[in-house]
Amino acid sequence: MVTIIDGVKVRLGVMENLRSSNQTQITMRGQYKNVQIPVLTGVTNRTLCRQINLFILKKASEGKKDLLPTAKAMKSWTSWLQEKNLDPFKPTILKYESPTYGYRQYLLERISEENSLSSSTANNYILIIKSFYEMLEEEKIISTSDFFQYRKSIVDGYRKIKSSDLSIRVARKQIPSLCPLPKEKQENLLKIISADNAQTSTIIKLMMQCGLRVSEVLSIPYSLFNEDILDKNETSLIGGITIGPRYGVKTKFSKEREVFMTKSFLSEIVELKYSKTLLERLSKYKIKNNTKVPPLFITKNGTEMSKQAFYSSWYRLKVKYKSVFGEEFTYRPHDLRATFATELLTIAMQLEPNNLEACIEFVKYYMGHKDEKTTLKYIRFLNRQSLASSVAEIIDAIAGQEFVK
């Protein structure tokens, strides 16, 4: 696993020539300065690891003070390279297999799909990778033309700046809007995932049917969903399953909350837990991580499923959706959580039409909202949808009358 060791002390200056091969103490010539820099470890490609740390050292010698963002960009990139098994020094024919263009596409997917990475951060990451390749060209290790192309961009209608085709457009901040899946899209997605592997199917259902976030789902421990809970609960709704840091789950604001879980869905999860595939992956995980609590979702290599791995699966589902249904699937994973909230609220309001306060509290509880204002967004959304639907019906009726005349 790629990690960052921050605060490593180094001395910048010119080193005196060694007087003999037995000399153990290094002395500096003239003035020098002591600095602290972040260093990357765990990069399987040793040449790459050495070059990255030299790159960070070079930036420090040029006077750059805060190098942690540089190290974070390099950690993200090298983790992605290792997952894709790509050689950073080898040019490719296909762009999506390229260590530069492929990583750029991954960042774009994180912006649009996950909505956890801002476009400004993504652009900063890719510019750092570009700068790294420029250093490699200075050292005569690679040619940058194999990995990206320079171009001139015009800003404000007259200013010309030198950029590259790796640049990511920085979007203006917008208030995110709710985008739950309509019934038809929900049904289509469930048809798609039913033919997919059980792990991906369960992850998506935990978001769409329980309202969990991606980070929450991927951090669920193997022991959370136990078959004993099935025996203790006689109703269709399973009670007592709680998530939060105390249970090993990364919830927003570290808040604990109870999970909305039906008995039939819990049975599915228990079946997945004891499937031959997952037990084999669990065995591999325990060998690699002796004392660590195993997660529920494990890759075939016996490692904890990362967000990168999940978003690769999500991208494949979108491609499959288009091939099966002939239309683009433009929704993000977080929209599945919005789908759960709107469905829950709709049903609650149908059951308790005269008790709006209880409906809001019900949804707030299972969504884990910190503030009631967040829950009220779903009320406003449903009201807009209802009004728009009613207006459309009236317009259709008027248009029908006009047609008859």
UniProtKB/TrEMBL annotation:
The lineage of its organism: Bacteria, Pseudomonadati, Pseudomonadota, Gammaproteobacteria, Alteromonadales. InterPro entries: DNA_brk_join_enz, Integrase-like_cat_sf, Integrase_catalytic, Tyrosine_recombinase_XerCD. It comes from the Bacteria. Residues 176-392 form the Tyr recombinase domain. This is Tyrosine-type recombinase/integrase. The keyword Cell cycle does not apply. Pfam families: Phage_integrase (PF00589). PROSITE patterns: TYR_RECOMBINASE (PS51898). Keywords: DNA integration, DNA recombination.
